[in-house]
Amino acid sequence: MSDRQGFDFEHFYFRELHPDIFIGTASDRYLGWVGQIYSEDRYKGRISSRSKKIKGRTFQEDVLPVESVEEYFNHFRILEIDYTFYGFLLTADGEATQNFHVLSRYKSHLKEDDYLLLKVPQSIFAQKILNAGKYIANEDYLNVKAFIERFYEPALTLLGSNLKGFIFEQEYQRRGERISASELARSLDFFFNSIYPDPRYHVELRTESYLTPVVFDVLEKHGVGQVLSHWSWLPPLAKQFAKSGGRFLNAERQCIIRLMTPLGIRYEDAYAQAHPFSKLVEGMLQPEMIEETARIMWAGIEQEVTVNVIVNNRAGGNAPLIAKRIAEAFTTAKPQSGSKTEKNE
Predict the structure, then answer these.
(1) Helix axes 181-194, 213-221, angle to 10 degrees
(2) Residue 13 CA from chain centroid, whole number
(3) Does a structural domain hold residue 18?
(4) What is the three-class DSSP state of 127?
């Protein structure tokens, strides 16, 4: 597993599935992927462990060193970096944070055609944040200066051409507490009009009532992509795609599909079922997620859009095996000969 190979989903090589398809995962370095993505013996004695508490239960996560990203990119073309969701790259005083240093180590192992998606800190895009066990209004919500100076500019400087996109994820807003879609659209219009124009922006809204024309029009105005997310309380991917008229909003003709959790399952429960992320969990993977993802991938190709599919372990137990299912469904769902897609290949 040391060299890059052509498409071979039986051995988890997805880089050459299709020129306009990028398959990757949300986070990496999982010990549960040894034998699939990572070599059996390469990291012996260099596995670190950390504890994670979820709903009163403690889980141990065993993590490979950053160097393992080299093997990761033998198999995948893209990787979503999640830890930037929890903190900036620079402090308010301009000093490099721990996230900056870790990301710098990742960069040192990347080749020219390895690409990263960065999650924008929740401090920028969350309407409410958790503080002392309670959700309170986020004073830095849509803070233009903080985004530019403490995240956007250092990310560009650090990653250069390896940076493929920014994901702005907004948490679910409870009924009775949420602002209207029109008010959200106005605030997003102001924000994206105030930051540097960049076709690599993508927005994930986890509140179904915000998936409306007034919001989509603002995203399209600024060339911002709609993230299609298979997540607990959102509708199925096909319905999300239909809500925007089956069109792709991103100015650079990029689309991001994120497969996060089974529909109707909370994060905590999905994590507990999937841990330790070494195999598919019986009954957890929802077949419709795979089928709809494959159809949207082909829809993107038909419209000359590059589709980036990001898979999380929590969507079924083991991200590489889920990616394999997607690759199989994608090849099976290939349009008949003579279609626009066939002619463009």
Answers:
(1) 10
(2) 19
(3) yes
(4) coil
Residues 115, 119: Cα–Cα separation, whole Å:
13
Give the total number of structural domains in the chain. Answer: 1
Residue 125 lies in a domain: yes
Stated pTM of the model: 0.95
Asked if residue 345 belongs to a domain, the reply is no
317 in the Ramachandran plot: left (φ > 0), alpha (ψ -120 to 50) or beta? Answer: left
Please give the backbone phi and psi of residue 166, each rounded to the nearest 5 degrees, phi first.
Answer: -115, 130
Strand partners, 79: 25, 116
Low-confidence spans in the chain with pLDDT less than 70: 1-3, 336-345
Phi then psi for residue 288, to 5 deg, are: -60, -30
- In 3D, which of 299, 170, 298, 308 has the Cα closest to residue 244? 299
* Beta carbons within 8 Å of 66's beta carbon, 6+ residues apart: 29, 102, 105, 106, 109
| Distance of alpha carbon 267 from alpha carbon 231, whole angstroms | 9
Q: Label residues 203-236 b or e (16+ Cβ within 10 Å = b).
A: bbbbbeebbbeebbebbbebbbbbbbbbbbebeb
Q: What is the pLDDT of residues 296-317, one digit of tens each?
A: 999 999 999 999 999 999 999 9
Exposure on the CB side of residue 85, measured as CA atoms within 13 A: 16
Q: Give CA–CA dist 278/74, Å, rounded.
A: 19
343 within a domain of the structure (yes/no): no
Q: How many CB atoms lie within 10 A of CB 150?
A: 25
